[in-house]
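Open question from group meeting: does this chain pack into something compact, or does most of it stay loose? Before anyone orders reagents, we agreed to write out a predicted structure and look at it together. Recording both the input and the output here so the notebook holds the full record.
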Amino acid sequence: MSTDRVVLVTGGNRGIGRAIAARFVRDGYRVAVTARSGEGPEGTLTVRADVTDAASIDAAFTQVEEKLGPVEIVVANAGITKDTLLLRMSEDDFDSVISTNLGGTFRVVKRASKGMLKARFGRVILISSVVGLLGSAGQINYAASKSALVGFARSLTRELGARGITANVVAPGFIETDMTANLPEDTQKDYKGRVPAGRFGAADEVAAAVSWLASDEASYISGAVIPVDGGLGMGH
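Structure tokens returned:
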């Protein structure tokens, strides 16, 4: 598949975001990533951005537009966790996760939609989590921010669906990243035991689903939640 469409992946310097950006490069897209630090994979344009700051997002988009052209595909992937049980969770633990994971998506997609409306084409892909629908003790802030992306994508579909713009959610399960690699062996075993597939997923498997949603083959799919979780979240 070769296309000269412009893609922006937020948080594209590591983990799942990096794998998504690398996949789009392989597919022949023009790819930019936002990062607070570090660089995106080879073949991408890295721009500095803080998704909690609208002016910073605007500046990043302007840079991408000048160097690559209007953003036609946006992947909202940047996210943080501040895990702790509800009774110990501070206002800041809650607010900062919501502001980054949900507010960041709002700021990025709002800025991207201007160009998409002009082009009458757009792909909005939001990276959620199996935890968003399944729930997870100690992750009230994170799970709330991730489940909110479903309502976001579906409302956006109703607003912009007639303009050639789709909005979908990808919900990864346990994926092999630096984060999972650092878990104690017993914990890893326990997690794997819960996954019907019996293994963690690869970041490339998430990237494959994102790549497909961005393609012309998925032009009649919008407001969907695509799980990439080995069956962990079935029925949610």
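Observations to bring back to the group:
The chain has a mean pLDDT of 95.
The radius of gyration is 17 Å.
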